[in-house]
Write a sequence for this structure.
């Protein structure tokens, strides 16, 4: 994950409290989603950015997960995500993010 | 005047030392954790020149194999090396020692110092190069080894090494100005030198005299200037000077990875308007991106695949009746108001310009979006970038009712191609197809190709906007438009009058009957 983005997430978690922040991912592949999810929960696995060794434990979801999808206006979802959802390996992405979330997220949605 | 794709060139430079010295993944790591596992293990993952040469995507890039044939080769490509040649029909893969010499040839401020013995050896090697002439070789001059060591140890010059042995350095161009620091000069001279190589190959491939080039647009991702105008430019003219395009001026166009596609539109427009007849679009490589995904590659036991600088050249000329045409009557543009969701971006770049021409997504034989080599990006979690783009285009075709959802894979294999370009930002962005596309269109194997350039503008922290432009390349129908301006208008008027008179005559005849 981009070092600048890591910094922003760390800052937001400190400002609002980790229990009040949810990270929503938009990665197009399961590996990338998994690395991003790990970064905002257990810390930067590449030990390069501001989240290296910092386990924020944030709740993290991918935009295609049902918990998030049902919270979005269906028209907006269709316009913004509809086609992308058609081309993504949705199940693999959900499993990748869910597995990291269950291991490292410390706060509920 | 129709602008046509008159010629292309594609070059790679194998630079394992510059990668470890100037690639930002390496340099940032060295600054933060000089003893890291990555830095200790990296040397074991460096490829030899021969391994780089025999890497199938590299052979595809310089034109020795058809990029589309990559899918039928065994994977991973880095384990299944093929027979490779240094020179291909589009360009070459240059080794690092010769490139150091080319950097000195490109340098007009005595910033690249090379050691006496090295210069003697390299002069012999470069004398055999088909496109580096005696004037170029005569510019090479050596310095005592001690002086180079002194520059590196006492003045912060960047060392240039071959097999771990110091053979030269790049020194700073100013004491205080950070935009002229040694690492910036290395970055800019490497861009300039690789672009010079690309331009030499382009002129050779297009069989055009340097004096016929009237304008050069440089579209790499670097900025040259000083502290008072950090991105002042002008790489284009600096490159043209070394290659000898005496009748050309030029300028630089930037747009992150979309830069080349923008530049080709600018070049085509200059030709279409009649301002210039031969416009070159040129780009050199980016040292900063060398080894960018190196940490993941080393961790996963891959070679450091991002060990090459890329460069390309494209010649846009006035219609010759034969070369493929760059269509300007409808281009794709991601505008400020387009929106940033992937489907909005892709619609703006594909569906919208095609609709304007009454065409469907299936009417384009091949799409060339970001053509990054997936073997480089997948281990780093970035996926297969071209494939993601093709899936999006196929999904748009489904949504528009052009194809069935079950036919998406067929659409992707028919209208797509495997990624084969180095992850040098601007280099993979659509343009690498133009070499093989030009040939296939002229041979009648393809009729219409779309080049899509996309750029991530948010990286500069100036905007959150995304960006992209696209254009179509089509076969030439052989009609050379020679009249412009008043003459063309008069001709049009004559045709209209003749048509009208014919209609009247026809009408009178039918009334008589």
């Amino acid at each position: 994950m981009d070092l600048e983005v890591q910094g922003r997430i760390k800052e937001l978690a400190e400002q609002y409290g980790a229990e009040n922040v949810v990270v929503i991912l938009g990665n197009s592949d399961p590996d990338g989603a998994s690395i991003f999810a790990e970064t905002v929960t257990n810390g930067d696995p590449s030990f390069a950015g501001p989240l290296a060794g910092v386990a924020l434990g944030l709740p993290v979801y991918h935009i295609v997960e049902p918990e998030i999808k049902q919270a979005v206006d269906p028209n907006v979802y269709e316009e913004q995500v509809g086609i992308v959802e058609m081309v993504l390996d949705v199940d693999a992405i959900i499993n990748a993010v869910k597995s990291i979330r269950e291991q490292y997220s410390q706060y509920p949605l | 005047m129709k602008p046509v794709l008159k010629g292309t060139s594609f070059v790679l430079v194998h630079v394992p030392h510059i990668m470890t010295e100037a690639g930002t993944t390496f340099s940032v790591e060295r600054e933060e954790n000089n003893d890291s596992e990555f830095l200790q293990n990296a040397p074991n993952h460096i490829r030899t020149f021969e391994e780089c040469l025999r890497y199938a995507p590299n052979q595809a890039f310089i034109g020795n194999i058809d990029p589309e044939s990559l899918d039928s080769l065994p994977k991973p490509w880095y384990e299944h090396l093929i027979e490779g040649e240094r020179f291909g029909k589009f360009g070459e893969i240059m080794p690092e020692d010769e490139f150091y010499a080319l950097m000195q040839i490109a340098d007009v401020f005595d910033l690249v110092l090379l050691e006496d013995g090295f210069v003697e050896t390299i002069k012999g090697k470069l004398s055999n190069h088909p496109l580096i002439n005696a004037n170029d070789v005569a510019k090479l001059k050596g310095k005592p080894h001690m002086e180079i060591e002194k520059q590196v140890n006492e003045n912060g010059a960047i060392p240039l090494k071959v097999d771990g042995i110091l053979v030269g350095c790049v020194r700073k161009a100013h004491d205080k100005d950070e935009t002229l620091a040694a690492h910036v000069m290395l970055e800019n001279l490497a861009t300039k030198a690789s672009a010079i190589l690309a331009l030499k190959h382009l002129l050779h491939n297009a069989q055009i005299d340097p004096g016929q080039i009237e304008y050069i647009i440089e579209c790499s991702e670097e900025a040259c200037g000083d502290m008072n105008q950090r991105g002042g430019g002008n790489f284009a003219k600096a490159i043209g000077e070394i290659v000898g395009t005496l009748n050309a001026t030029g300028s630089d166009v930037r747009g992150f990875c979309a830069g080349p596609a923008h530049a080709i539109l600018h070049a085509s427009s200059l030709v279409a308007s009649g301002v210039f007849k031969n416009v070159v679009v040129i780009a050199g490589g980016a040292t900063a991106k060398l080894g960018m995904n190196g940490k993941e590659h080393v961790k996963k036991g891959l070679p450091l695949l991002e060990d090459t600088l890329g460069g390309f050249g494209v010649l846009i000329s006035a219609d010759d009746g034969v070369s493929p045409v760059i269509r300007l009557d409808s281009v794709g543009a991601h505008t400020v108001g387009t929106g940033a969701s992937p489907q909005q971006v892709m619609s703006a770049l594909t569906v919208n310009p095609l609709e304007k021409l009454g065409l469907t997504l299936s009417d384009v034989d091949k799409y060339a979006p970001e053509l990054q080599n997936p073997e480089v990006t997948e281990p780093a979690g970035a996926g297969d970038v071209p494939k993601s783009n093709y899936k999006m285009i196929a999904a748009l075709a489904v949504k528009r009712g052009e194809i069935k959802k079950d036919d998406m894979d067929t659409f992707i294999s028919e209208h797509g191609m495997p990624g084969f370009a180095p992850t040098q930002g601007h280099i993979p962005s659509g343009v690498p197809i133009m070499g093989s596309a030009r040939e296939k269109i002229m041979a009648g194997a393809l009729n219409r190709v779309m080049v899509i350039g996309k750029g991530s503008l948010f990286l500069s922290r100036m905007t959150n906007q995304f960006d992209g432009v696209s254009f179509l390349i089509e076969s030439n129908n052989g009609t050379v438009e020679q009249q412009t301006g008043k003459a063309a208008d008069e001709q049009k008027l004559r045709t209209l009058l003749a048509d009208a008179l014919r209609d009247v005559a026809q009408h009178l005849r039918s009334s008589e009957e």
The longest helix of chain B spans residues 485-512. Residues 3-111+172-474 of chain B form a domain with the Peroxisomal Thiolase; Chain A, domain 1 fold (CATH 3.40.47). Chain B has a mean pLDDT of 95. Chain B has one domain: 3-111+172-474.
